[in-house]
Design a protein that fits this description.
The chain folds into 3 domains: 339 residues, ANL, N-terminal domain (Rossmann fold), CATH 3.40.50.12780; 80 residues, Luciferase, domain 3, CATH 2.30.38.10; 99 residues, ANL, C-terminal domain (GMP Synthetase, Chain A, domain 3, 2-Layer Sandwich), CATH 3.30.300.30. It is built from 17 helices and 28 strands. With 566 residues, it is an alpha/beta fold. 49% of the residues are buried. α1 packs antiparallel against α2 and α2 crosses α3. Keywords: Ligase. GO terms for molecular function: long-chain fatty acid-CoA ligase activity. This is Long-chain acyl-CoA synthetase.
Length: 566
């Protein structure tokens, strides 16, 4: 359907950026196949200096797909990935999709409780997991559906000399090896999967409308749920990203994967966008400025997606070590506000652009970005991407638009917007506003925004009470539940407070049981048993009572305001 809503932002697009894109007709399996056929000799992946060409990557994907098929993986089956950034992650991702099965991405640093909750929801029988988290999955209760664990030793993808050094009988080598891998039993080694013959080329792969990925998110209600993203959603978002940077020539770019690929942001800009560009994707298991700068000396990235703290630390480390960042042409920042204090030093060191964007897991995830041009606007998240429509509405009456320039809730639609949450029809219905023009329904972002007369969008506030720290979503209710499990805690309210380094800081306000005294360090240690480190409160504040509504609901907004003003 043709777009009929007003789009004032189109006049602010950078030169060469199209206003609309054709509908996606191919799957992500087609996307990677095209790059393999077009750039067979180009380097596709680099991991600690070891490289994999596109032709080698394509063969590994076809072999892994056959290995998974022999294990019984069929079209439509969810397959869980619990992996850091490594070559095996890319191969596993596309091998699952090649079968028409569904990738379910997981944070390998999650606690057993967090992982179990997600596995109980999606019901995957097969999981491809980093060695270091295998025991966690094996300890799941019998009612969790996992039948087969494929274990991945990430050191097997490293250069031979580096692997040999990790085996040296010295303390530092043992420590480094333990951080990367561990011995496991009762699993199918990844090497057995990729040793299969290539899959029969006549096996029918996925359709563009099939679900490709289940991406877990706290959504707009604070309860973690799986956003179902189709091949068309993710393919469209990769195409929109390509259209936004027309100056980057296919087959020549270098992209650094410093963002975790289990996160929606890293998934799209590294796993799909970079691969569709025929780019050299340099993989980092975690962000380490010194490690990144070593690679920068050899070949700086053309395109670097990241979050503000990464740009800040990388700039300071480069200056301190005398490493030039010149040549990093485009950097796209997301997940938290980008300040001039980060932008100005970065652009001075690189001679390129650092611009802010915006998205949500439910939108594959990128919805808008500042133009990579002199007219980008600091303090805004930029302009809607091609083929994306946005409206600003009354949050109490989401079918009613507010006046131009006024603040209201952002609702969106476009080819990258998901169709719903996994097995949760009621939650799905609650986040969509029915269309009245025959087009797709509008997704409610839960963000309060204002759009200026040039079409630039400024985030004002969030209706939803999610905390975004270091680019990751934290559901207050999940942290509160973990704190209330402590015998000394009667009630807890968790909010986010501004933090210049991480965007927001997780802060808990607690009411103690009679006779108890607050031991903040002990309470935070207790929380670590059930929460990933970034979810553990940085501060714990004691209160006699928590503000509540007439029906007894804790008013987190009042808690937050009290902390800010007190």
């Amino acid at each position: 359907m043709a777009i009929t809503t007003p789009r004032p932002w189109l006049s602010s697009y950078a030169a060469g950026v199209p206003t609309d894109l054709p509908a996606e007709t191919g799957s992500l399996a087609d996307l990677i196949r095209t790059s393999v056929e077009t750039y067979p000799d180009n380097v596709a992946l680099e991991f600690f200096g070891r490289t994999t060409s596109y032709s080698e990557l394509g063969e590994q994907i076809e072999r892994a797909a056959e290995g998974l098929r022999l294990l019984g993986v069929q079209k439509g089956d969810p397959v869980a990935l619990v992996l850091p950034n490594c070559p095996q992650h890319i191969v596993a991702f596309y091998a699952v999709l090649r079968l028409g099965a569904i990738v379910v991405e997981h944070n390998p640093l999650y606690t057993p409780r967090e992982l179990r909750h997600q596995f109980e929801d999606h019901g995957a029988r097969v999981v491809i997991a980093w060695n270091n988290v295998v025991e966690t999955i094996q300890a799941f209760p019998p009612d969790v559906a996992v039948q087969t664990i494929i274990s991945v030793d990430v050191t097997r993808a490293m250069p031979f000399t580096m692997r040999a050094m990790l085996r040296l009988p010295v303390a530092k080598a043992r420590e480094s090896r333990a951080a990367l891998t561990t011995a496991v039993r009762g699993t199918t080694p990844w090497e057995k999967i990729v040793d299969a013959a290539p899959i029969d080329g006549h096996i029918i792969g996925p359709e563009v409308s099939d679900v490709a990925v289940i991406q877990y998110t706290s959504g707009t209600t604070g309860s973690p749920k799986g956003a179902t993203l189709t091949h068309g959603n993710l393919g469209a978002n990769a195409a929109q990203a390509r259209a936004w940077v027309p100056e980057i020539e296919r087959g020549t770019s270098v992209v650094y994967a410093v963002l975790p690929m289990f996160h929606a942001y890293g998934l799209t800009l590294c796993l799909t966008f970079a691969m569709s560009m025929g780019a050299r994707l340099v993989l980092f298991p975690k962000f380490d400025p010194d490690l990144v700068l070593k690679v920068v000396k050899r070949h700086p990235p053309t395109f670097l997606p990241a979050v503000p703290p990464i740009y800040d630390r990388l700039t300071k480390a480069a200056v301190a070590e005398g490493v030039s960042l010149d040549g990093i042409r485009i950097a796209i920042s997301g997940a938290m506000p980008l300040s001039a204090a980060v932008v100005e030093p970065w652009e001075a060191e690189t001679g390129g652009y650092l611009v802010e964007g915006y998205g949500l897991s439910e939108c594959s995830p990128v919805l808008m970005a500042n133009p990579v041009a002199p007219n980008r606007k600091a303090g805004t998240v930029g302009l809607p991407l091609p083929s994306t429509e946005v409206r600003v509405v009354d949050p109490e009456s989401p079918g009613t638009d507010v006046a131009t320039g006024a603040e209201g809730e952002l609702i969106v639609r476009g080819p990258q917007v998901f169709s719903g949450y996994w097995m949760k029809p009621e939650e799905t219905e609650a986040v969509f506003v029915p269309a009245t023009d025959g087009g797709a329904d509008w997704y409610r972002t839960g963000d309060i925004v204002a759009i200026d007369d040039e079409g630039f969008v400024r985030i004002v506030d969030r209706i939803k009470e999610l905390i975004i720290t270091g680019g990751f979503n934290v559901a207050p209710s999940e942290v509160e539940e973990a704190l209330r499990a402590h015998p000394d805690i009667e009630e807890a309210a968790v909010v986010g407070l501004p933090d210049e380094h991480s965007g927001e800081q997780v802060v808990a306000v607690v009411v103690l049981r009679d006779g108890a005294t607050l031991d903040e360090a002990a309470l935070r240690d207790f929380a670590r048993d059930g929460l990933t480190p970034y979810k553990v409160p940085k501060r714990v504040v004691q209160a006699d009572e928590l503000p509540k509504s007439l029906i007894g609901k804790v008013l987190r907004r009042e808690v937050r305001n009290g902390l800010l003003n007190g």
